[in-house]
Amino acid sequence: MRESLRRARATQGSFNAFVLIRDEAAMAAAREADAAVEEGRATGFLHGVPFAAKDLTPTAGDLTTLGSWSSGDVVPTESALYVRRLQATGAILMAKTTTPEFAHSSLTWSPRFGATRNPRDPSRTPGGSSGGSAVAVATGVVPFAEGSDMGGSVRIPASFCGVVGLKPSLGRIPMTILPSVFDDISHFGPLARTIDDAVAFLEATSGPSDEDIGSLPLTFEPGRTQDSSLAGKRFALSVDLGFYAVEPQVEAAIRRAAEAMRAAGAIVEEVALPWTRAVVDEWYEVWCVFMSAYFGDRLAGFRDRMDPSMVAIMERGFAKDATSYKRVELLRTAMWRDMARLFESYDALLCPTCAVTAPPVEKVDGDYFGEDASGRLIGLDMTCPFNFTPQCPALSVPVGVAADGLPVGLQIVGRRFADESVLAIGRGVERLGLG
Question: pTM to 2 decimals?
Fold first, then answer.
C-alpha cells in the first residue's frame, strides 16, 4: 500500500489522475489487513490489494463531486455496492479518480479539477470519462480501477492509455449510482493492467442485487476465461463499422493484430456492416436526454460554473420530444438484428476501440463530429454503438502502438452475456504480445 500511495503522489503533479488520495484511511486498512493475515483471518482473494474508484461513485466518508461545482462538498455515508463487494474480498480503496463533469465527455477535463493527462504523452488526453482511473492503472498505482461506461467511458481511456478496459454485459455488475434503475446504457467496468486483473474485478463485483432491478441472475465463471486459444475461433472484422473515418495508423495497427490472430489459428474475415452515422447521432440524442433528465435541475444555479459543453448537452436534451426519443429504439432494434445475424457465423466482432490515437489535451468532443470528403464521420470513439446493444460485452485490449507512438486498442464485442468468452479471447490476444 505504501508503494501505491507513493506512486499516486509522485505522478499526481504530472498527470492529475486523482481528486483525493486516501493516505491515512488506506494505510489504516493496510495495517488491519496485515494484522488479519498474522491472525489467520484474511478476508478474501483480494486481501490487501489497492484499487481506485471514479469520482462519480459514492464512497463512504469521501468527498464525491462528479467533477462538478454543483455537487458542493458532499460526503456520502454509504459506498456503492460494487465498492462494498470489493472491500468484502479484502481490497482497499486508496483514491478517487478524475472524471469530466457528470462523466459527460470522451476527454477528462472538469471545471472543478482541470485536465487529466496521458502518461504516454502528457500533451495528450487519457480519454474519458474514466480518464483518471486509466491513468491510475497505466502508471502502476493500482492493478485495477473502476470506470463507468455509458458510451465508451471505460474503453476509450483504456485504448488511449494502453490498458485493458471492459464494458460488461448490462447488469453483470449492478449499476446502483444513477437516479433511475431503469437506465439501459450504463455499466460499471474495470480498467486493468491485464485480463487477469479484469477477471478478478468481475469475480468480486458481479452478481444480482435488488439494488439494481436489471442486475443479471447469472454467475460469473472466471474459470471460463482461461482458454486463451484462438485456434479455430471465427471473428468478423469491421475496421470502420460502416461509417467511421479511421486514422490510417490506427487501421494499420488493427490489421497487424488481425494478422497475428490469423497466425495463431483464428479465422478473421472482413465484413461490411450497414450502419451509418445515424448510430452516433441518435446515441448523442439519448445522451443529451440522459444528462438533462438526471442533472438538469442543477443548471439554473450553476450554469456559469459548468463546462460549456455540459450546458449545451442539457439544453439539447430539454428540447428533445418524446416521440423522437422513443423512435431511437427502432434503430437499436435494427442494430441488434444485424449483430444477431453476425453471431450466427462468428464468435465475436473485432474493430478499433477508437478511430484515432489520444488527441491533444486541449481538444473537445465537438471537434469529432465532422465528416471527411467522402462523408465518413471524423469521430473519436467507436464504442457508443455497443451501448445501444448493451447486453453485448465489449472489451478493449491493447495491440501495440501506432506510427505516432501512442497506444491502439482492439475492441472485441461478444454475444449477449458472453463476458467470459470475450475475456478469454482478450487473453488470447494479450498472449500474442502485441501490446
Answer: 0.98
